[in-house]
From TrEMBL:
Cellular component annotations (GO), alphabetically ordered: cytosol
Classification via CDD domains: QOR2 (cd05286)
Protein known as: Quinone oxidoreductase
Domain Enoyl reductase (ER): from-to ranges: 11-320
GO molecular function: mRNA 3'-UTR AU-rich region binding; NADPH binding; quinone reductase (NADPH) activity; zinc ion binding
InterPro entries attached to this UniProt entry: ADH-like_C (IPR013149), ADH-like_N (IPR013154), ER (IPR020843), GroES-like_sf (IPR011032), NAD(P)-bd_dom_sf (IPR036291), QOR-like (IPR047618), Quin_OxRdtase/zeta-crystal_CS (IPR002364)
Short name of one Pfam family: ADH_N
Length: 322
């Protein structure tokens, strides 16, 4: 027997339906995984609401997970039954068992649990390319991270600090401010603060070379106002809705740059995926970045987890257990 959370029509968390589905068999190039943990991410909300269009309906949402290989399809040589594996960027994670393309999988090293792996793959590899490639953080940089207590944000704070940056985090509550300070943030600002004014004060008027923003519509212009001339705005999420703006504002605010990167692009080549995952595993095993699984829900209660995520009641990572 196999169960999955499926969406038959887009809408609120109530559209997440727990139902029995056939257990799949791996096709050529695929691996059948008995899942032990599934990661919760905002991209799951985007697919549920229809902001991101599913390839077909009904759809099993979810982009990352970890488990044990049960069987492999024709042509798969890198994995075998019994291997501990994890993945990100493969739609269909909200299931007890699922098939995934072998090219999307990586082996979980010793010392990393299934829960950690499921919680870190999408968020942690996103953080990796954001701090290493989209903008390569250097010692002495001062950066700003919105939603700094969230899944990607909390990893970004730690990794940026590890790379020698002064980190300004923005959060919604004093409790979350205390949390990100414990993760190494040098400054914890609240969403109710005048954030550009505080940044100006912190930097002595120099402003910032880069801002990391996963909030979207509500913070986009605020983020631009925190940048130094020719600074880079990295918008990598739409928690408050998609960004729509006249590009002329970039000229008016100092010849600014904006990018909207995705994990799929940065890990499209197999060698990039493996290198990104291995860099993530290494920094976690070193202790420089800690993966905080602060919420755990049974997979069948995914709707409850979505409500908590959307109401900003979560911190760190959330894992769904099949």
């Amino acid at each position: 027997m196999n169960h999955a959370i499926r969406v038959h029509e887009t809408g609120g968390p109530e559209k997440l339906v727990w139902e029995e589905v056939p257990k799949p068999g791996p096709k050529a190039g695929e691996v059948l995984i008995a899942q032990k943990a599934v990661g919760l991410n905002y991209i799951d909300v985007y697919f549920r609401t229809g902001l991101y269009k599913a390839p077909s309906m009904p759809v099993t949402i979810g982009m990352e997970g970890a488990g044990v290989v049960e069987a492999v399809g024709d042509g798969v040589t890198e994995f075998a039954a019994g291997d501990r594996v994890a993945y990100a960027g493969a739609l269909g994670a909200y299931a007890e068992a699922r098939c995934a393309p072998a090219e999307k999988l990586v082996k979980i090293p010793d010392g990393i649990s299934f829960e950690q792996a499921a919680a870190m793959m999408l968020q942690g590899m996103t953080a990796q390319f954001l701090v290493k490639r989209t903008y390569a953080i250097k010692p002495g940089d001062t950066i700003l991270v919105h939603a700094a207590a969230g899944g990607v944000g909390s990893i970004l704070v730690q990794w940026a600090k590890h790379l020698g940056a002064t980190v300004i985090g923005v959060v919604s509550t004093p409790e979350k401010a205390a949390l990100i300070k414990s993760l190494g943030a040098d400054h914890a600002l609240l969403t109710t603060d005048n954030i550009p004014a505080r940044v100006k004060e912190i930097t002595g008027g120099a402003m910032l070379p880069v801002v990391y923003d996963s909030v979207g519509k509500d913070t986009f212009l605020i983020s631009l106002d925190c940048l130094a001339p020719r600074g880079l705005m990295i918008t990598y999420g739409n928690a408050s809705g998609p960004v729509t703006t006249d590009l002329g504002v970039l000229a008016a605010k100092g010849s600014l740059y904006v990018t909207r990167p995705t994990l799929n692009t940065y890990t499209a080549k197999r060698e990039d995926l493996v290198a990104t995952a291995n860099d993530l595993f290494a920094v976690v095993k070193s202790g420089a970045v800690k993966i905080a699984v602060n919420q755990t829900y049974p997979l069948k209660d995914a709707a409850e987890a979505h409500r908590a995520l959307e109401s900003r009641k979560t911190t760190g990572s959330t894992v769904l257990i099949p």
